[in-house]
């Protein structure tokens, strides 16, 4: 059975977003146990020129919802980037998952050879659907989820690889 565009996108994004939400549960437990400032972790970053945790989560959500929307031929929903707490980030993830799961499978499956144009800064980039998913959306999505994991781990949240990978 061939791998479909839907199978390579929607369930993968949903699984990793749910795993990211579970990582944030552990982060909240870490904050509560140590009586830390509630935004101590959400503003943490690995290096001064890298995004902080909250922005990593926001971008992971934006990339996944944007990818599924573009592949499905629907408008990309706009989410304001106002989250500052773990609870707000978890709500953003939940809203993103709800949207991703609402996009019908058929147009996503039909998107492999369709042109997808993405504006980055002032430049437009055009990909075929499969190239967009496999060479742009997924690598960027996984980068930001991995970086969020690394920020949490670096700041003492007790995580293991299985927390990142999730149930299988």
What's the structural domain tally?
1
| pLDDT averaged over residues | 96
Given the structure, what is the number of helices? 6
Largest sheet: 2 strands, antiparallel
Instruction: Look at the structure and give the CATH class.
Output: Mainly Alpha
Number of strands: 2
Percent of residues in helices comes to: 55-70%
Q: Characterize the quaternary organization of these chains.
A: single chain
Radius of gyration: 16 Å
What distance lies between the first and last C-alpha atoms, to the nearest angstrom? 20 Å
Largest sheet, spatial ordering of strands: 1-2
Instruction: Give the SSE order as H and E letters.
Output: HHHHEEHH
Question: How much strand?
Answer: 5-15%
- CATH homologous superfamily classification: dinb family like domain
Describe this structure in words.
The two termini are 20 Å apart. The chain is built from six helices and two strands, in the order ααααββαα. The chain has one domain: Four Helix Bundle (Hemerythrin (Met), subunit A), CATH 1.20.120.450. The protein has a two-stranded antiparallel ribbon with strand order 1-2. By secondary structure, it is mainly alpha-helical.
Walk me through the topology.
Elements: H1 5-34, H2 53-72, H3 86-102, H4 105-109, E1 115-120, E2 123-128, H5 129-154, H6 161-165
Antiparallel strand pairs: 1-2
Task: Write a concise synopsis of the structure shown.
This protein is mostly helical and about 170 residues long. The protein contains 6 helices and 2 strands, in the order ααααββαα.
